[in-house]
């Protein structure tokens, strides 16, 4: 009875509640007749129009471009996430009077948002003639924007991000009264609000810069691509390539989710987008519910570390590290391949442990037919890749031209899956999809601003180095754990920005290059989406699979184990980031490639035969040795695994053909 009840509770998981982008899409769909939703759709259309205009004609000065960008996002949130839904636990939402009062408050907040942005713009524009002195308007603008940003973040992202921001603001206020180790001179509220409204490290700092230029453009590209039907094409091509093999349904999820996740940059949204197709398909073939949900969660999360787009992480890293975009993409190739290779091996080995049925051939589309019907999507994606990596246009222009290419190229589509009528709805979807990212970046801007103002990043980094006795590995371990904790329940962009501003500088002090340090931090900010106890991507997969959320999260960690090992490996071996000569790069890659396969088999319990617990431990240990830099550890790891495999040759149920023939003889 208790088990039945638990199962029912699992089935009631609302996946839209796990991600603000999904919640916004649901609101847009369900509130078509609501005048406030119609107003929000109009603002979303105007927001997208503003970014297209400035993309082609040139961005405004920093406070104007980023201020208008933020004001649009706040307007959308206040219209689509009304106060009556987010206070008193929705207790009085049925009262018309209460709803009316809440709506009036929201409208006042919208007006105040625009007024505050205009005041901040005026203050910044007159800083030179006022000899860098600000007036009361800067204080007012900073106070209003901070309060409204925190409230908007509470409604869309939950309580974690606003509370974190308030903690850092409180730290800035209480500086002189803190213990000596973390004390500072202290700042008044007036100084804090002026700083947040007018300084380049405040609300309109680096994170908002990337959001207002590059990230929105890629969100828009993703919305247009989705409207064109590209997700169906990617699902079909994945099935056509993998469907004929035993583990095909699960491998198709790995391929499709990885490709889509790289473009849309949201692990949870991607789980829902592709998982509604792949998870039922996996379950119908015999995979357990928690395994199916875990596969989808891992593949969707990995999209954010998969070149060339990498969600929005690569663009933030460009801003933080001042590296060229192509350098970041090249550095991320091998780590991403190892991550997906580990997941693929897990899928293949799992299919040998349980009774998996192959797909009916009539249900598998032919690759030739899929390409014949959808080659036009490859052209669109090709335009983006050529613009980014060959012509090396800026990410902003690459995404903008790729977006423009969607309606132009789809004009030649015989099925007319995307017409001129699709453009306005795609523009509205762009605004709705971006608002949670914008507010996450704004909230992160509060944290980064306080870190810059107080110097806590340097203090924290020095403390961490002292605790680790200036040793790299303990510092990396502490950083990884902190990134996962900071990333619990937060969008990847916000989690990465906060962790990068606090933790990355200390890793750089220990000798890592800025790119290595930031890529390490970014990896674990992404992996927080599948790491218990708050694993939003895994929870979304569990909701679709009708499985236990925690069991699915644990399964996801086993499937995505390579993501936890690879960052440590490339910190000690730059060759894994393609930094070095060809022989070094190939040697490191081959060793890690074999090690990943062995560890994956050990975790799943099958590698040519069903493994007992002792054999699993031996394989995991030998595979881990191959990640440790050095020829000796590689040789020992390979030797231990080879001995175990050869000793148990008679147990093999399946393996390389020539070995199986020898076994029969």
Give a description of the structure.
The protein is an all-alpha fold and 665 residues long. It is 73% helix and 0% strand. It has 30 helices and no strands. It has helices spanning 2-11, 20-30, 35-57, 62-80, 96-125, 136-157, 160-173, 189-198, 206-227, 230-242, 248-264, 267-285, 289-302, 313-321, 325-353, 367-390, 395-410, 422-454, 456-467, 472-486, 492-502, 504-509, 514-527, 536-545, 549-559, 561-572, 582-604, 613-625, 631-647, 657-664. The longest helix has 33 residues, at 422-454. 53% of the residues are buried.
Concise synopsis of the structure shown:
Helices cover 73% and strands 0% of the residues.
Highlighted features:
disordered N terminus, globular, 73% helix, 665 residues
Beta-strand percent range: under 5%
Helix share of residues?
over 70%
General shape: globular
Kindly report how far apart the N and C termini lie: 54 Å
Question: Which residues form runs of ≥5 with pLDDT under 50?
Answer: 1-11
Question: If you average the pLDDT, what whole number results?
Answer: 85
* Global Rg: 26 Å
How many E-type strands?
Answer: 0
Major sheet size, sense and barrel closure: none
- Structural class category: mainly alpha
* Separate helix tally: 30
The ordered H/E elements are HHHHHHHHHHHHHHHHHHHHHHHHHHHHHH
């Amino acid at each position: 009875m208790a088990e039945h009840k638990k199962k029912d509770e699992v089935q009631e998981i609302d996946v839209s509640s796990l991600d603000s982008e999904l919640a916004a899409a649901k609101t847009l769909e369900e509130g078509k007749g609501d005048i406030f939703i119609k107003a929000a759709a109009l603002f979303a259309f105007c927001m997208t129009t503003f970014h297209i205009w400035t993309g082609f004609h040139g961005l405004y000065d920093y406070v104007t471009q980023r201020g208008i960008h933020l004001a649009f996002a706040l307007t959308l949130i206040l219209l689509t996430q009304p106060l009556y839904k987010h206070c008193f636990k929705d207790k009085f939402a049925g009262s018309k009077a209460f709803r009316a009062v809440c709506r009036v408050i929201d409208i006042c907040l919208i007006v105040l948002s625009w007024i505050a942005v205009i005041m901040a713009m005026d203050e910044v524009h007159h800083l030179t003639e006022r000899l860098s002195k600000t007036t009361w308007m800067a204080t007012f603008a900073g106070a209003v924007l901070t309060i409204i940003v925190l409230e908007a973040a509470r409604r869309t992202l939950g309580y974690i991000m606003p509370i974190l921001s308030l903690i850092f603001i409180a730290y800035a206020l209480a500086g002189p009264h803190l213990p000596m180790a973390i004390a500072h001179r202290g700042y008044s509220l007036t100084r804090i609000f002026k700083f947040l409204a007018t300084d380049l490290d405040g609300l309109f700092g680096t994170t908002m810069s990337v959001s207002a230029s590059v990230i929105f453009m890629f969100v828009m590209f993703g919305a247009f691509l989705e409207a064109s039907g590209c997700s169906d094409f990617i699902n079909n091509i994945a099935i056509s390539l993998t469907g004929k093999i035993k583990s095909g349904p699960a491998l198709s999820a790995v391929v499709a989710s990885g490709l889509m996740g790289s473009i849309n940059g949201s692990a949870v949204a991607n789980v829902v987008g592709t998982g509604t197709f792949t998870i039922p398909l996996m379950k119908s073939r015999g995979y357990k519910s928690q395994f199916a949900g875990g596969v989808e969660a891992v593949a969707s999360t990995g999209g954010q570390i998969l070149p060339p787009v990498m969600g929005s992480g690569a663009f933030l890293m460009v801003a933080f590290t001042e590296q060229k975009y192509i350098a970041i993409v090249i550095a991320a190739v091998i780590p991403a391949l190892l991550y997906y290779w580990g997941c693929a091996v897990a899928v293949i080995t799992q299919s040998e442990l349980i009774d998996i049925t192959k797909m009916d051939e009539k249900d598998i589309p032919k690759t030739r037919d899929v390409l014949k019907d959808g080659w036009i999507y490859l052209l669109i994606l090709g335009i983006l890749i050529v613009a980014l990596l060959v012509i090396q246009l800026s990410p902003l222009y690459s995404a903008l031209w790729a977006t423009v290419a969607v309606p132009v190229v789809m004009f030649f589509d015989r099925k007319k899956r995307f017409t001129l009528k699709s453009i306005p709805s795609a523009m509205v979807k762009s605004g709705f999809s971006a608002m949670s990212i914008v507010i996450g970046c704004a909230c992160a801007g509060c944290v980064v601003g306080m870190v810059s103002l107080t110097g806590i990043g340097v203090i924290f980094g020095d403390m961490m180095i002292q605790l680790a006795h200036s040793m790299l590995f303990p510092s990396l371990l502490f950083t990884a754990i902190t990134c996962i904790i900071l990333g619990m329940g937060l969008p990847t962009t916000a989690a990465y920005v906060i962790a990068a501003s606090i933790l990355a500088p200390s890793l750089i002090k220990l000798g890592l290059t800025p790119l290595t340090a930031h890529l390490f931090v970014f990896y674990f900010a992404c992996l927080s989406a599948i790491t218990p106890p708050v694993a939003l991507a895994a929870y979304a997969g569990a909701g679709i699979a009708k499985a236990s959320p925690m069991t699915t999260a644990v399964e996801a960690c086993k499937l995505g184990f390579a993501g936890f090992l690879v960052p440590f490996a490339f910190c000690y071996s730059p060759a894994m980031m393609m930094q070095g000569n060809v022989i070094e790069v190939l040697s490191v890659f081959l060793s890690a490639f074999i090690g990943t396969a062995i560890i994956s088999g050990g975790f799943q319990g099958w590698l040519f035969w069903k493994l007992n617990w002792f054999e699993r431990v031996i394989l995991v240990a030998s595979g881990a040795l191959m990640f440790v830099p050095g020829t000796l550890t590689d040789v020992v790891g390979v030797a231990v695994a080879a001995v175990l495999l050869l000793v148990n040759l008679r147990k093999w149920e399946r393996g390389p053909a020539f070995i199986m023939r020898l076994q029969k003889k």
